[in-house]
Design brief:
- With 452 residues, the chain is an alpha+beta fold.
- The chain is 29% helix and 27% strand.
- It contains eleven helices and 25 strands.
- The strands form six sheets. It has a nine-stranded antiparallel sheet with strand order 13-14-12-11-17-18-10-20-19. Strands 1-2-6-3-7-23 form a six-stranded mixed sheet, with helices on both faces. It has a three-stranded antiparallel sheet with strand order 4-5-25.
- The longest helix has 19 residues.
- The protein is elongated and about 80 Å long.
- 48% of the residues are buried.
Length: 452
């Protein structure tokens, strides 16, 4: 029996075990004694480790932050870091998100692609390698994290209590492989003075503000001017109403992830733009339009830049007025060949004027491995040897993975180029055929990493 047949024989068992993980609602919960991320993440880790134990692996639970399954001997460790926590269900699902539903080749459920499915794929890749008698000159360790979606505190704990990895990957992104992840900066803009009565837009800082409601004092002819300005935008929907000396503006834009904000339409940004066009004079409107605006390139604060791997992206996610002050979140992903110090120098002196100010809250340096590095070459070869796809090349992304938390690893699969698996959305799915193929790719990847 060749390897594809061996994997196919195990397919039903793999899907059954994936169903056990999907059945657990492992969103971030309320921390409890011994359960730092709440009940769900602790439960799903227990389930994951039990599956690994039943497959004959040595398992360790690291205080319910994360755990691992391991095989082999030696000082060096080939690490595979996946996560068992999930984002909120959200959206209008056709199937129960916590019941694995098979429809032909499609398998639906929250976490099927991000990232419970890949954990199962990696686990069975290890099992098949072990059972084949391949010489394990290093340990192979599958780490199961419980907090990737909300801060990766699980990997901070791993770094404190466990050994460093020699090399490896996280199956939590795209094939053929990710050799770079942009740097990250989070900022917050604040008004100093504003006549805006109330403003509320957006839900999360790492996505484009896709809806916004704003209330301002009414003035003669202002409603008509606002309607004319809003009509000349790409908003999906807008509404302007006037009552009791106030004008309310509702704007509906287009959502997009903070790593690709140009694909969306910022409802708050368009509102500020139209307020200025309609003649509404306001200090923070002026500040927002000059420093943030609807451009997605950071040009308003001197950060517009690019390298051969991509350009800087700039996203306003949430806007709200509280205690008389308007605040706006800013999410920046900057090119991999630039440093945090470069970013700070470029925007120095450009973050404040008499109308508003911007504070830098957090910075994260980029991750970058040259395509010619042994790690990238080993993983890319595994992908091309199994799939025959040499057209798609290693990628740089704006998102972030465990590769920024653990040393010597990069992101590798499982998403195929150009396919939308609806991760973070309703009806997230994977394909049984791709689960089987990923197992084979990960087998080859582990073998290549053992040879480094």
């Amino acid at each position: 029996m060749d390897i594809k047949e061996q994997i196919h024989v195990l397919s039903e068992e793999m899907i059954e075990n994936l169903g056990k993980l999907v059945a657990v609602d492992s969103q971030l919960g309320t921390p409890e004694e011994g359960k730092p991320f709440g009940e769900g993440p602790a439960e799903v880790l227990s389930v994951g480790l039990k599956i690994a134990e039943e497959l004959g692996f040595h398992t360790v639970n690291l205080d319910n932050y994360c755990g691992y399954a391991e095989m082999g001997e030696g000082e060096e460790i080939v690490g595979i870091a996946g996560h068992l926590d999930i984002v909120p269900v959200g959206g209008d699902w056709s199937y129960d998100p916590f019941v694995l539903t098979c429809k032909g080749d499609h398998v639906y459920g929250r976490g099927t692609t991000d990232d419970k499915g890949p954990v199962i794929e990696a686990l069975y890749a290890m099992k098949l390698l072990r059972d084949s008698g391949v010489k394990l000159n290093k340990r192979v360790r599958l780490i199961m994290g419980c907090n990737e979606e909300t801060g990766s505190k699980c990997m901070e704990h791993y770094n404190k209590v466990a050994e460093e990895l020699s090399c490896g990957f996280t199956p939590d992104a795209n094939f053929p492989c990710i050799h770079g992840e942009k740097g990250h900066m989070s900022m917050m803009a604040y008004s100093k003075h504003t006549k805006i009565i109330s403003m509320n837009g957006g839900f999360v800082s790492n996505a484009v503000c896709d809806s916004c409601t704003t209330v301002i004092p009414a003035d003669i002819g202002l409603k008509e001017k606002l309607e004319a300005a809003l009509a000349d935008t790409k908003l999906q929907e807008y509404q302007v109403t006037e009552e009791n000396g106030q004008i309310e503006i509702y704007a509906k834009g287009v959502p997009a992830h903070a790593s690709t904000p140009a694909l969306g339409i910022n409802a708050a940004g368009v509102t500020f733009e139209c307020l200025e066009k309609a003649g509404f004079e306001d200090d923070f409107v002026e500040f927002y339009n000059s420093h943030i605006g609807t451009a997605c390139d950071g040009s308003g604060i001197g950060l517009k830049c690019a390298d051969e791997f991509g350009e800087l992206t700039f996203c306003n996610g949430i806007v709200k007025k509280e205690d008389g002050v308007i605040s706006a979140t800013i999410d920046i992903r900057f090119p991999v060949t630039y440093s945090v110090e470069d970013m700070l120098k470029m925007c120095e002196g450009k973050l404040e004027d008499e109308n508003g100010r911007i504070e830098i809250h957090t910075t994260t340096k980029p991750l970058f491995f040259p395509k010619e590095s042994p790690l990238v070459e080993a993983l890319y070869k595994a992908y091309t040897d199994v799939t025959g796809d040499t057209e798609n090349k290693p990628l740089v992304i704006g998102g972030g993975t465990y590769a920024k938390s653990l040393k010597n690893i990069i992101a590798f699969g499982p998403e195929k180029p150009g396919v939308d698996y609806r991760i973070h959305g309703a009806d997230e799915y994977t394909l049984v055929s791709e689960v089987e193929e990923a197992v084979q790719i990960y087998m080859e990847a582990i073998k290549n990493l053992l040879a480094i």
